[in-house]
């Protein structure tokens, strides 16, 4: 039976807008279809041109990696790759597929089809960071539950990447990073590829190839200088997306901390993490219940007269200089309220043991805890004798975690009715700070140390603090600057009208409330950049 070549063309055009053949040098040797529509160039004029010129600059590394990675008898594709903008600057996206037929190798057959949906082209050639990756993965996983493909998460580590980057010139290292980003995007579904750090990367991809095939392609594209390893975790199409995203976060945490997890799918990762979480929560709860922590005290001084206004009580666990890891764990497990209450109870004991009755302490309360009725009720009972009036300040930390601002404000008012002051901590760290200040009627605002530390080198931060001080005065709230480490910064804060200051210029946290000493400035000089915190 004679084979009509036009039949094959008809079948091909049923699924593609433009057919291309590319040689081993990346040059177009055949073009047929809607070349003018997709590339503003007629089919005949495409022949002899570099095929990378068909694509937007940011997507050229992905197209190059796709072509270099496809094996004999294999078909691979990339969804929504950016085409070169038209003369009006219009963004157009296309789905690209490539097939290497052994009989015509090393030439590769390619098909381009205009993609549907909004055409938003990539601006940066860099990979996603973790936050952007999780956001993209969430959208793609939710969409795949309706009509999308089966997906899996690829966890990839490039042994020797840091060594190779250091060995190369800056220009060559940048070129390597572009090839690496292109290679990972060529593996990804919906552009979901990320650099996590520590030579580790993640991609969300169509389920299919074994990890060995992924490694083989990456090695072909990037060269033998790197040593990639890969593991894939299947995305269960029947599992709720919220559960899958929780599992993905656990998987990425474990991958960064310990390398690829020993699991076959995200559900297994979640089950293992839940068991680990239960154990960690139990251990942390026991530590809090048994009071296996101590308080240390750092002075907060008045910039007007140099006297101590109060001390911040900071928590320390056995053998730890910083409690950051434990506090973060408690916040992630949503058991921070137990610690917040335990610290408040210990602070109350210390206040009641003070014979002079002049000691004032500030303690931290998480944004998660401030909306808890049981926490406020417990403080009501602690405060009932009335002997603590004006002697305790509650600093709201992690304000971004406040789920219900009106409820938080009611609890702020309750604490104030017990005779306590309330402070909004880390003000300025995050775009929502002014919204919190608008809705939470606090007595004190603590300016985030990231602004304070740069005061001698940034006029913008200086101006911002002056405006913040004026705003707080109108709201009848005092201001405290943290991370004050030099006399020059102190002078700027005093001129700006800041009320109080805290930092290594005045003293390190001590096991007993200790007034500032003359040696405090010398200690600060050795500790520039350190923020004392309990979480």
Give an overview in words:
The protein is of the alpha/beta class and 535 residues long. It has 3 domains: 5-114, PAS domain (Beta-Lactamase, 2-Layer Sandwich), CATH 3.30.450; 130-276, Reverse transcriptase/Diguanylate cyclase domain (Alpha-Beta Plaits); 291-526, Alpha-Beta Barrel (TIM Barrel). Helices cover 40% and strands 21% of the residues. The protein is built from 19 helices and 17 strands. The protein has helices at residues 5-13, 35-39, 43-46, 60-69, 130-144, 161-167, 170-187, 211-222, 241-258, 266-289, 324-332, 336-352, 373-383, 405-417, 433-439, 449-452, 459-474, 487-496, 520-526; strands spanning 18-22, 28-33, 75-82, 93-99, 108-114, 151-159, 193-197, 200-206, 227-234, 293-302, 308-317, 361-366, 392-397, 421-427, 444-447, 478-481, 500-502. An 8-stranded mixed β-barrel has the order 10-11-12-13-14-15-16-17, surrounded by 4 helices. The chain has a 5-stranded antiparallel β-sheet with strand order 2-1-5-4-3. The protein has a 4-stranded antiparallel β-sheet with strand order 7-8-6-9, with helices on both faces. Helix 7 packs antiparallel against helix 8 and helix 9 (241-258) crosses helix 10 (266-289). The protein starts with a helix and ends in a 9-residue tail after the last helix.
Give the topology, please:
Elements: H1 5-13, E1 18-22, E2 28-33, H2 35-39, H3 43-46, H4 60-69, E3 75-82, E4 93-99, E5 108-114, H5 130-144, E6 151-159, H6 161-167, H7 170-187, E7 193-197, E8 200-206, H8 211-222, E9 227-234, H9 241-258, H10 266-289, E10 293-302, E11 308-317, H11 324-332, H12 336-352, E12 361-366, H13 373-383, E13 392-397, H14 405-417, E14 421-427, H15 433-439, E15 444-447, H16 449-452, H17 459-474, E16 478-481, H18 487-496, E17 500-502, H19 520-526
């Amino acid at each position: 039976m004679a084979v009509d070549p036009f039949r094959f063309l008809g079948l091909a055009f049923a699924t593609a807008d433009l057919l291309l053949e590319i040689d081993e040098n990346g040059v177009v040797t055949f073009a047929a279809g809607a070349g003018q529509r997709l590339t503003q160039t007629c089919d005949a004029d495409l022949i002899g041109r570099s095929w990378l010129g068909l694509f937007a600059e940011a997507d050229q590394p992905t197209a190059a990696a796709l072509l270099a990675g496809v094996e004999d008898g294999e078909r691979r594709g990339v969804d929504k790759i950016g085409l070169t903008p038209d003369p009006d600057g219009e963004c157009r996206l296309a789905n690209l597929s490539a097939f290497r037929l052994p009989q015509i190798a090393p030439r590769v057959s390619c098909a381009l089809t205009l993609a549907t949906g909004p055409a938003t082209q990539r601006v940066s050639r860099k990979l996603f960071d973790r936050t952007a990756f999780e956001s993209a993965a969430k959208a793609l996983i939710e969409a795949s539950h309706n009509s999308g493909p089966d997906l899996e998460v690829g966890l990839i580590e490039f042994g020797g990447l840091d060594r190779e980057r250091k060995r190369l010139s800056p220009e060559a290292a940048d070129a390597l990073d572009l090839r690496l980003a292109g290679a990972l995007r060529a593996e990804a579904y919906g552009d979901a590829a990320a650099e996590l750090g520590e030579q580790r990367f993640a991609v969300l991809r169509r389920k299919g190839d074994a990890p060995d095939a992924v490694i083989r392609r990456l090695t072909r594209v990037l060269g033998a200088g790197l040593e990639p390893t890969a593991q894939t975790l299947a995305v269960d199409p029947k599992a709720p997306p919220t559960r899958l995203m929780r599992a993905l976060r656990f998987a990425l945490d474990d991958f960064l901390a310990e390398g690829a997890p020993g699991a076959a799918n995200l559900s297994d990762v979640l089950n293992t993490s839940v068991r680990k979480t239960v154990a960690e929560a139990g251990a942390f709860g026991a530590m809090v219940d048994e009071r296996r922590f101590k308080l240390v005290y750092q002075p907060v001084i008045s910039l007007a007269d140099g006297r101590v206004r109060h001390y911040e009580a900071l928590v320390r666990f056995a053998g730890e200089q910083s409690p950051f890891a434990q506090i973060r764990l408690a916040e992630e497990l949503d058991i921070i309220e137990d610690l917040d209450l335990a610290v408040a109870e210990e602070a109350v004991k210390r206040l009641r043991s003070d014979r002079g009755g002049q000691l004032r302490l500030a303690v931290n309360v998480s944004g998660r805890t401030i909306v808890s009725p049981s926490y406020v009720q417990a403080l009501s009972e602690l405060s009932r004798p009335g002997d603590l009036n004006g002697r305790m300040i509650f600093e709201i930390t992690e304000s971004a975690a406040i789920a219900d601002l009106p409820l938080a404000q009611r609890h702020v008012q309750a604490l104030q009715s017990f005779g306590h002051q309330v402070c909004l901590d880390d003000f300025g760290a995050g775009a929502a700070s002014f919204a919190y200040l608008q809705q939470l009627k606090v007595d004190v605002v603590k300016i985030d140390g990231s602004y304070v530390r740069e005061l001698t080198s940034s006029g913008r931060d200086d101006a911002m603090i002056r405006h913040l001080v004026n705003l707080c005065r109108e709201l009848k709230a005092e201001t405290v600057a943290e991370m004050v480490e030099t006399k020059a910064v102190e002078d700027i804060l005093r001129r700006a009208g800041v009320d109080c200051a805290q930092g290594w210029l005045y003293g390190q946290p001590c096991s007993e409330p200790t007034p500032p000493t003359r040696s405090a400035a010398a200690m600060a000089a050795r500790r520039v950049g350190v923020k004392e915190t309990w979480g």
